[in-house]
Write a structure and sequence with these properties.
four-stranded antiparallel beta sheet, mainly beta, 0% helix
């Protein structure tokens, strides 16, 4: 497997990363208050843009329809960028608390921003003005403290994550509490249209279209760090103790147990067709990434040995990994 490592953001934390398919670059932002653009093949730096009046950039989003990049920071504002200009083109100021997320629409002029107090702002970017405010502490329906949010396009709803999960429907002006538990991680399977939620030692699986709770499963005294559903209705589970478990949804029979050296940050199903690692038998394949900077490639399924080590293990060279994701172009982003 090809592996590239670059020194970015002057050694400061990299807090946001986004692939921009229109111009085939990876955009990253970090604690040094810059946005860097990288060639997605060679990882050569193409440009670096400094933010204004910022204490570090934390999140990044991109609108393909408007070719606009948005970054958030702890300074309670959102900056708008063009990939082709050297400085931010505009600054959005409406929040009194640190902004925890931003969502753009590819074919609509609206933008959604949210801060840690639960205040959600819907913007009309044609006028760069706020057209609706939801969930603020002063409103009749305050959300409370949140850490992030997502947008459900099918329902036109905003889902916030904090001490509980809330769903807002801006057109109706209403919201409801979906879950009243602390959430560790959330993943989505676009084949089965199901959402997998991890909370402590529990896993909850929801149907996307109806919101119905389909399955709950407890791992006893094991604290789960991440999980991912596969198209074959298997569930890949990573733990803080350094185990990866493949289990069958519904029967909850383990088909594979893998021991790694550190807390698992990511599990990802690669399917039978994969460019990672070496050719193997007709079993599905997966990878896991640990917090100590290693990723392992392994197979799972009915014909695999239940226990054992990974098929292939790679060293990334990082002392510690804070977050990571897997891109559609078979690339791991740390």
């Amino acid at each position: 497997a090809a592996f590239k490592r670059v020194c970015a953001h002057k050694g400061e934390w990299i807090l946001g990363i986004k692939f921009i398919p229109d111009i085939d670059v990876i955009a990253s932002c970090g604690a040094d208050s810059t946005v860097n653009f990288w060639d997605h093949v060679t990882m050569a730096k193409k440009s670096s843009k400094p933010a204004t009046n910022s204490k570090g950039l934390q999140r990044i989003a991109y609108s393909r329809g408007h070719r606009a990049l948005y970054t958030t920071s702890s300074s309670r504002e959102v900056q708008m960028w063009s990939p082709f200009l050297a400085k931010p083109t505009d600054t959005l100021r409406e929040h009194e608390k640190p902004v925890v997320g931003v969502h753009c629409f590819n074919h609509s002029p609206e933008l959604i921003t949210g801060d840690s107090s639960g205040k959600m702002c819907v913007w009309d970017m044609r006028k760069t003005s706020v057209v609706q405010v939801l969930g603020s502490p002063e409103s009749v329906s305050p959300i409370g403290v949140i850490s992030s949010f997502a947008y459900d396009a099918r329902r036109s709803a905003i889902v916030t994550l904090g001490h509980r999960i809330n769903m807002f429907i801006p057109q109706k002006g209403s919201y409801s509490a979906l879950m009243d538990i602390a959430v560790t991680s959330v993943s989505y399977c676009n084949i089965s249209k199901k959402i997998c939620v991890v909370s402590g030692n529990r896993i909850l699986i929801f149907e996307l279209t109806t919101g119905d709770l389909l399955y709950t499963h407890s791992c006893g005294s094991v604290e789960i760090s991440c999980a991912a559903l596969t198209p074959l209705q298997d569930l890949l589970i990573g733990t803080f103790e350094g185990h990866v478990i493949a289990t069958v949804v519904g029967t909850w029979q383990n088909s594979r147990t893998l021991q790694v050296e550190d807390s698992v940050k990511l599990v990802y199903d690669l399917g039978k067709q994969s460019r990672v690692g070496t050719a193997m038998e007709e079993n599905p394949r997966a990878l896991c990434v640990t917090s100590n900077g290693k990723y392992s490639h392994f197979c799972y399924g009915t014909t695999c040995e239940i226990t054992g080590g990974p098929t292939v293990t790679f060293e990334t060279g990082f002392e510690a990994i804070h977050c990571c994701s897997f891109s559609p172009k078979n690339a791991l982003l740390y």
